[in-house]
Amino acid sequence: MRRGLALIALVVLACDDRGGGHVERGPERASAQAAARLDPSHYRAEIEAVEAVLYARSPVQPDDGERTSYAVESLLASISKREGALPAGHPALGLREFGAHQLAAGAAGGPASDRSPAQSEWEVVRDRAFARASWFSTSSVEYVESQAAQPRRLDRTSVARLTQMLERLRALADVGERECDVLGTPVPAAAGSTARPVASGDEVARWQEFQRSWLERVDAAARELPSAEPAAPRDFALAIERTGAALRELRDAPAGVGRAPTPVPGQWQPRFAAARSEIAKAREYLARLP
User: Fold this and answer.
1) Residues 153, 154, 160, CA angle at the centre, nearest 5°?
2) Are 224 and 165 in contact (CB under 8 A)?
3) CB 161 within 8 A of CB 224
């Protein structure tokens, strides 16, 4: 179906400007078109910038259309600087329409998860505008489909590391909350007073020292977080995402108002609870793995 769309686009682009004029056919027309193609070696950086977006292995992003359009405009600017004004009907002028199309598609929301239509359209326009080059990217449709047909790769070593890390973080959360309880919270100067507690200099110093040592422990644990390979199962990637969220909650646990290290139980307790919740979610994702 996608290749069919590309062929349709090729037929459309084979026409002259949309004024309904006569379209030349035959070997003379094909020869003239081939002669009009630009040498892509002069524009390699700009072409590769376009293809870096179109053939990215990462998921489709909301600004893909804008980024593609910007890269195409940069390519057109380089062509104009080197070639001057192109004659009407020159195949390279199709690049402008392609860029505008990608910008419009992005503004409208664009494809949810598939770049192949844009890739197919680009290949038609590019191969009319430029002579063939070995370094051109080609459609990744076949690659994506072949990867989808294969089971997702699971790195058991990384799974084991993440499992151990979650156990370590849960223990760290328990220890950290107990240490906060021991440090306590400032109390009003007078019994029965409802005035806001004011920490003494010694209390502030103890909290500051605890915060420094706490951040060192959390950051040391964070360095053990494995990365998800591009082909890793989605549940593993989500487990890593939730572990990162737990680390952020733990890191902020001893921070008070304005991040001053003099919190009260109503500040640190919800953070430790949120960290435990994220750890539990990460474990749930790991439990789904085959």
Assistant:
1) 165
2) yes
3) yes
φ/ψ (deg, to 5) at 55: -115, 20
Residue carrying the six token digits 């990384």: 158
C-alpha closest to that of 165 among 219, 221, 217, 214: 221
Do 161 and 229 meet the contact criterion of CB atoms below 8 Å apart?
no
Q: Is 130 helix (H, G, I), strand (E, B) or coil?
A: strand
Contact criterion met (CB below 8 Å) for 137 and 55? yes
Residue 38, phi then psi, degrees to nearest 5? -85, 155
Residue-wise pLDDT for 162-218, tens only, equals: 999 999 999 999 999 999 888 876 554 455 555 445 556 677 788 888 888 998 999
Cβ(186)–Cβ(199) under 8 Å? yes
- Non-local (6+) Cβ contacts of 266 within 8 A are none
Task: Tell me whether residue 229 is exposed, middle or buried, using C-beta atoms within 10 angstroms of its C-beta: 0 to 12, 13 to 18, 19 or more.
Answer: middle
pLDDT of residue 29: 46
Q: Quick one: which of 39, 259, 32 has its CA closest to 130?
A: 39
**Residues of 55-79 as b/e, b for ≥16 C-beta within 10 angstroms?**
beeeebeeebbbbbbbbbbbbbeeb
Residue 89 gets the label, from left (phi > 0), alpha (psi -120 to 50) or beta, of left
Highest mean pLDDT pick, 62-71, 142-151, 201-210? 62-71
Q: Quick one: which of 79, 111, 106 has its CA closest to 93?
A: 79
User: What's the chain's length in residues?
Assistant: 290
Element (H, E) at 98: helix 94-107
- Token code pair at residue 170: 């849960």
Quote the pLDDT of residue 279: 95
